[in-house]
Amino acid sequence: MDRPDETTHFGFRDVPLGDKQALVNDVFHSVAQRYDLMNDLMSAGLHRVWKDLMINALNPPRGDKPFALLDVAGGTGDIAFRAAKAAGPGFRATVCDINSDMLGVGRERAAAQHLDDRVSFIEGNAEALAFPNNAFDAYTIAFGIRNVPRIDAALAEAFRVLKIGGKFLCLEFSAVDVPGLDRLYDFYSFNVIPALGRAVTGDAESYRYLVESIRRFPRPEAFAAMLRAAGFKRVSFQQMTGGIVALHCGWRL
Ligand SMILES: C[S@@+](CC[C@H](N)C(=O)[O-])C[C@H]1O[C@@H](n2cnc3c(N)ncnc32)[C@H](O)[C@@H]1O
């Protein structure tokens, strides 16, 4: 139960904890139709490389061994599609996201790629998953966790729904510490990205939020400690592209 005076941040703004999810939902309702295009433009295609590295770490079975993936905050389905293409016939993915507009785009993409028999889409909140205990071989969350108001609750749910021996993978923006690159990255983030957002989606504010939320997300060491506190073992992380993103890994053992 939240305390009535409890606050969190929405980008650089402090907001009541109970208000954050609705604000986040407005952002993704606004950008859903252009979300995938904007990812390519903002990252110059690099998000594809980062996502492929996440799929390499997931390493789904190539054979017909059953393998159930839960991709939370899965949006338009990118991670689930990439995993399905890398995996064998025993693979099934469930994409769970709180936003019906993002899921709608994902369902259309799944049908267009003939992946709708292996990837299903379910509306739901990362903080309270409607799945039984010990149901999944792996849990992925890409560029999603920083949008979730109660990260501890989402991590506890991830742990609960994973089978013993199941793998947790989180791809998230991280902290750029490379001298020179940090200033360039700041300039690009705070000036270029909102302008690009305005030009492509008509919505600069949503992209300002996305940039600000990256800066408010815990540093990778602190997030690794949150994973350990949630019960995950063999927790590790790997920073990529000068620290722009980090891939976090943990196991339910
Ligand atoms: C930046 S997108 C990431 C989409 C996808 N994983 C990708 O990498 O392209 C963030 C997603 O998190 C979802 N989201 C935000 N809060 C959530 C919550 N509490 N539970 C589930 N999904 C949530 C949003 O609706 C949005 O689709």
Please provide a written account of the structure:
The chain is α/β, with parallel strands linked by helices and about 250 residues long. It has helices at about 15-30, 35-45, 45-60, 80-85, 100-110, 150-160, 180-200, 205-215, 220-230, and strands spanning about 5-10, 15, 65-70, 90-95, 120-125, 135-140, 160-175, 235-240, 245-250. Strands 5-4-3-6-7-9-8 form a 7-stranded mixed beta sheet, sandwiched between helices. Strands 1-2 form a two-stranded antiparallel sheet. Helix 1 crosses helix 8 and helix 7 (about 180-200) runs antiparallel to helix 8 (about 205-215). The model has no long low-confidence stretch (mean pLDDT about 95). S-adenosylmethionine binds near residues 21 and 144.
